[in-house]
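Side project, low priority. Logging it here so it doesn't get lost.
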Amino acid sequence: AINITQPSFSGTDVFGYTSFLAYSTIPNITFYYEFRLKFQLANHHSALQDNLIFFTGQKGQGLNGDDFLELGLRNGRVVYSYNLGSGTATVISKPLDLTLNVHVIHLGRNLQKGWLKVDDQKNKTVTSPGRLVGLNVFSQFYLGGYREYTPELLPKGPRFKNGFQGCIFDVQVRTSLNKGFKSPGTPEGHPNSGRSVGQCKDSPCSLIKCRNGGKCIESGSTVYCDCLTGWKGAFCTETVSVCEPEHDPPHLCQQGSTCVPLPSGYTCHCPLGTTGTYCEQG
């Protein structure tokens, strides 16, 4: 078990699933909200990808349009979008200064007017199209990725195909100028669920001791021991039997015979109708 205070996200895995944290729906963000957060990129390459930072919202039905709020990275810039049901408003920052270790984002919206400030860049504003002024979202607040298997299930807009790669922390929100900032979640700061989330700068490999020359391999929040030839098991503590398929070289028993290990070597128990050292004769 790792105490997670600064969540680390591993992006999208080979099966198309993203690592994420899901918090309860943020109440009272219909007409006004402000968010503050910090993030640290896993590497410079991850800044150039198409990565989701946070998201809440749902697809529209019938005459009701998509309502959503999302923040992500695209081509080295921060992209902030929202849709109140009558069209998408998008603000795009200048390219990130990749010499900075930690990036700071402050964004908000009051009715149709939204704004975004990234690091020491100037504040940028946008006004959403149409007449609607309220953001009506019922979904949970997703950080770093999303539960859905594919982003096509999300509302239309600048869809972010990948989950975030790196750390996102100190996320805070307020829904009134008269209120203080709070962490999302019920109770405060506690997610409802998540997937493949680790602790920033803390590899689970530091807690695992692979034996007999095995090497700890980290993949997101999953770890396993890569064992040397002849060893197996979670920590490479079990020897590979001469009769097991992963033994190198493999045994030579043929034609459905059963390999039986001996103190030195093995023997083959032949089925009816076969004979020979390896049951190779009819």
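Brief comment: Residues 7-201 form a domain with the Jelly Rolls fold (CATH 2.60.120.200).
Revisit when time allows.
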